[in-house]
Amino acid sequence: MNIRELFLELTTRTYPSGTEDEIFHLLPQGIIRDFSGNYFIEIGDSGTIFTSHLDTHGDTIQSINHRFSGDLITSDGTSILGADDKAGVSLMMYMIHHKVPGLYYFFRSEEVGCLGSKEIAREMNLENWKRVVSFDRRGTNSLVTHQSSIKTCSQDFSTSLLQQLRRGGLDYVVDTQGVSSDSLSFIDSVSECVNLSVGYQNEHLTTESQDIKFLERLARAVVAIDWENLPTSRQPGQREWIGQSLVKPKEYKAPVKSKTEGEIPKKPSKKRFKKRLNLFGSTREWGFWTR
Ligand SMILES: [Zn+2]
To answer: Which of 180, 189, 192, 281 is the most buried (most CB within 10 A)?
Structure first.
C-alpha cells in the first residue's frame, strides 16, 4: 500500500462536516457505518481504539489542486489541503492493510466540536478498551498527553509509547498543549487517551502542508509498535490538571437520548452507565471547543 498515493486520493477535495458519507468509496472494504454517521472496522482482538476524523475544516466543498516541494505537499493556495486529518486517515488505512489489531474509528464532525466521538463515548460500552490513540496533531514529534490542561494519559503510558516510537526511529516528545480532539471524548471511560503528530502544519489555512516522507516513516513505525502491551495505569475519570492535584469529578447528569438506528460496535450497551462523570460542565459549552 502506497501512503503517498492514498493521501493524494483522499485529498482531492474538502469534506466539510456533514459530507463524510461521500468519502465512503475510498475507505477500506468491510467498513461499517455506525448510528451516528462515523465509520469503524475491527481487526483482531485488541484493547486499542485508533481514531482519525473524516471531516475537514470549513463549510464549503472545494476541489484541491496539489503542489509539491521536496517532501512537502500543499494545495495551490486557493483551498486548505485537508491533511488534518487525511494524514491520520491514510495512516489508519495502512495499519488496517497490515492487520494491526484494533478498533479503527473514522469520526465525523471533529472540526465542529468532536460530535461523532462524543456520541460514541456516550453510547458505547467502553469497559474493555484500554487506550484511545488519535492520529491527529500538527508537527512531527508531539505525543499529546494533556488537552485543555487536563491530563489524558499516565506517565507510564507516555514513556513506553515514546520508547516504542524511538525504536521506530522517531523522536517524539511529550506535548502538554493539546486543546480538544476526539480522544478527549473518551477520558471518563478509557484509561489512556493520546494524540500523535502526523506531519501536517498550518491546519485550517490555505498554507496547510503535509510532510509525506514523515508520514511514510510514521506508518512503518506504527505497524511495528506493540500497542497491546503498553501499560495502563491512569484511572478513567480521574481529573488531573497541569499544576494541580487530583480533583473529584462532579456527578454526571443524564445524557440527551440520541437516535439508535444503525450499528454500535462491540457489545453495545442499551442501558447507560449508572454513574457517569461530567466532563466540562454543559455539553453545549464543550461544543464550542474546536482544535
Ligand atoms: Zn484534526
So the answer is: 192
